[in-house]
Amino acid sequence: MSENLLKAVVRICRQYGNDRTRMMDIVRDVQEGFGCVSGRAMDLIAEEVKAHRVDVESVVSFYSFLTDEPRGKVIIRLCNDIIDEMKGEAKVAAALEDELGIAIGGTLADGSVGLEETPCIGMCDQAPAALVNDVVVTNLDGEKARQIVRALRSGSTPRDLVETLGDGNNASDLVRAMVNNNIRRKGEVVFAPFSSGAALKKALAMSPNEVIRDIKVSRLRGRGGAGFPTGMKWEFTRKAEGGKRYVLCNADEGEPGTFKDRVILTECPDLLFEGMTIGGYAIGSDTGLLYLRAEYAYLHRFLESKLQERREAGLLGKNVAGKAGFDFDIRIQLGAGAYVCGEETSLISSCEGLRGDPKNRPPFPAQKGYLTSPTTVNNVETFCCVARILDRGSGWFAQLGSKGSSGTKLLSISGDCLSPGVYEVPFGIKVSEVLKMAGARDAAAVQIGGPSGQMIGKKDFEKTICYDDLATGGSFMIFASNRDVLHVVDKFMEFFVEESCGYCTPCRAGNVLLKERLEQIIAGKGEPEDLEYLRELGETVKLASRCGLGQTSANPILSTLINFRSFYDERVKEAKDGMQSSFDIHAALADAEGIAGRASEHF
Amino acid sequence: MDKTITFTIDGVEVKGKPGQSVMQAADEAGIYIPRLCYLEDLVPHGSCRVCTVMVNGRPQAACTWPVSEGMVVENDTEDLLQHRRRIVEMMFVEGNHFCMFCEKSGNCELQAMAYRFGITAPRYPYLFPKRDVDASHPDIFIDRNRCILCGRCVNASRDIDGKNVFEFVGRGANKRVAVNAEAKLSDTNIDLTDKAVDVCPVGAILKKRVGYAVPVGQRKYDHAPIGSDIEARRKPDAAASGGKNG
pTM higher than 0.90 for the full model? Predict the structure, then answer.
């Protein structure tokens, strides 16, 4: 076995040029072959790529899909986000545990199956859902969960679990997923017909600076949520000092409740790759990377084949589309389960084969990004907009949407509504109109932009989706009047605690403390001053955290303290007799009583 | 390169050089910006966030933010003091810090910062994490109960000692400093003379057999608060405006 491991590690490392910046691929492949990246494997990898063992350990221990000990030949990862919970995840979990005879977090004694929970896998429109290795299973219930376990036990592979194929390219031979697109509304930008090469040829007929000018004129802003003007970002990257430049596409769609990139990757990969290629031309880059979240690994082969088709059509490679001197190609980099890698500098760290820690800024990626070269990182949807702008014209694009927010936005709608799915809407649409479209009859709260966004109540349903009002990366979770807002907030805090990289103090410790006090309040042990405690602590986490994760992680609490104050007020009560209600004196004294062998005299 | 950059910290005019951080320029000017992870000569880590200042109205870490002409920095404000207090209190509860029997007491930057900020007890509940101790090495021990994940040992070992003895593993609340070996510090090539052994701001990496050698009353922070050495550099004409932080 150890002989095999040695040979395999040497082969795998060699396949990636013994390049330590390809660590993500190396450890993923080693784990694929051996079920884990063992301590011995870390030693061998370190030797091959001339790194230190602890560097490898640092990476393996960071990503939730990587492990240093076997956790199961087949791993069932049940999505535990709030939407899945609302759709019956608990019954699915109970059925899986019962049928397997292990608890979540366990592995069968023979090592064949492991059972875990995982945050949002991008399937909220068909929840409850789970990953069985790379295979997605959707619309689960207790009975389906039992069937999955029985099938695996009788020798089925995860791929055999897919009996009914989804729509569109989900049914193609290279995907074969039971995932449905659930495209509910098509707009003119992303979900319109597109002919490969059309936009690229128009771009290549212009100078790179003219392309950037067009993107500026279109007033396109980043679709990931932060809304930075794309043209300006490209201009900075083009003008930055440095030889090589890179185009990175952020397909690490990890914000709970968002799944629109999944649909783009499935149905519009050409539009996306064309946008990336145009980006390469504009900033003067010959290399693009698509950072694909591990949860979407089921799309990997399909996307690779799309890239190959484009190479064969001359749309990637040397002298792209006949443009002498413009070479550009795209590599897919798979992630390994880390929400923070959706933060652009963490994403760069991960692409460099490091733990997904964000980097200090400045320098900004446009100055020094991937491998310290000027780099532009853009969202999947942003690149699609780019291709469409070049095809249809910047003026045409600029007149879509609202004043400060041109174009359309994809919304990933889930929760308490009749028609969850992806909606391409013009910017400036009111929340109330969106709710009507989705068939949400009893909406009491909407989480705009996922946990890192804000939760709004009915009084704000006439607000509009756009950068100047309700900015969003696209997650739109609907909660009906029977839902407990504080429970939703608690789930979000659990998510941030789990996903914090731990680099900076406020995010690492502050979120844990926020969650602790919130849970005291939910348990009825909170006092009125706890609300100020939460606000102050939340403000510090927001102000002092190092990256976007910590700067937004207190939002679920901070926004509900304002918009849903009554949920807190009715839970907290004044302490009686000066006693802190969160303090249980009986429990605190239990150990001492045990040692003393008698009960204490207390009140 | 000898161009001077002029900006203000709490209204006081400060001169900096291109490429300097706010922290470096402030240190030279004798203005103390509280910090726990930053250490001169090491690559700034930017993790503790105690040095958070407002730069033109936006929060930034002074140790990683470069100086620029005309920038307006706020440092010694009541608001920032509150945020910094909360961060230091977070550190006290997320680890296991028992000053009364820690041999770093009196020389500990975390403890000294708490005194400087007037913290008597953290307002947050102790989390009492389970952390491990590595006493395998004959001359050096690691007590992770006291680690604040500042990264000084990681950076010093890598950049000054050229050894990479330490690196972070895990994430979130489970993040910790690991050693470049299967398990133990004694299996690494660390030496007592390494810079990495000297840089720990708290009592997480200590030399054996030298504890408690300095009597109480003569320890580093027994008489003057942390940061006094930097404030002593301040020229008399600029010292008029005093500060809340000390």
Answer: yes
